[in-house]
Amino acid sequence: MLLKDKNAVIYGAGGSIGSAVARAFAREGAKVFLAGRTLPKLEALAEEISAKGGAAEAAQVDALDQQAVEQHLDAILKKAGHIDISFNAIWIRGDLQGTPLIQMTSENFTLPVLTGIKTHFLTATAAARHMLQKRSGVILTLSSSAAGLSGRDRRYHLTGGFGTACAAIEALSRSLAGELGPQGIRVVCLRPDAIPETWSPEHRDDHSDSGVRKYMENGTALGHLPTLEEVANAAVFMASDWASAMTGTIANLTCGSIMDMD
Question: pLDDT tens, 191-218?
Fold first, then answer.
């Protein structure tokens, strides 16, 4: 088990990506602390993980509220003794894409940016302050391919403030990695492309009927978009000691829709 005896906090654990990563962490031996706004979904996930032999606890936490984040971590520390992994999968309003910037309201442009950078800053720095006690830990952040689209795709996809938010999260991740590295804390940002399993049925049908999905799949080196399982498995590896030499990197999980130095 790659994460045996690790304590992992997952924000946005009720969502598609957060829940997939939580299951994978638990499968690999971590005790997972599920945080989010919708407690019934978190409790159902905790029960599912426990039924499969894993260890999980759920708590209602607003990851945009500094006091709520810090109180939750303090409670975990009292209960578990240490925090080893922090992963933020909070939704940053990807639904606000699709409008040209020159037609978009300032509120719709800035909301993903302010949401994404604030929640990642709050959860990452709060976790880091606890990790300093052991001088070890892993902070995983979440971006998307929208941060590094090709010129063709920037013409095709109207990402609005979502792409800017993802780029800001990646920049924050690198800055944190530089500051926290001497204290033994690693920071890695996961950058998947669009994950069809996370699309609503209407969204999925619309993308298939309009050819959007085929366009996106044809733009990848592997000929397909990433799956939740692939992203979760990558998160496990990055959080494990097997990736102990990796920090300040953007983990490219785009199936080759983006090819860069990271």
Answer: 999 999 998 877 676 667 678 899 999 9
Domain ranges of the chain: 7-253
Average pLDDT over the chain, rounded to an integer: 95
Question: Checking phi first, is residue 194 left (phi over 0); if not, alpha (psi -120 to 50) or beta?
Answer: beta
Say yes or no: domain 7-253 is CATH 3.40.50.720: yes
Q: What's the pTM? A: 0.95
H helix intervals, the chain:
16-27, 39-51, 66-80, 106-131, 151-156, 160-180, 201-210, 212-218, 228-239
The closest alpha carbon to 140, from 255, 2, 42, 25, belongs to 25
What is the DSSP code string of 15-41?
SHHHHHHHHHHHHTT-EEEEEES-HHH
Q: What is the largest CA-CA distance in the chain?
A: 53
Q: How many Cα neighbours within 13 Å face the side chain of 224?
A: 6
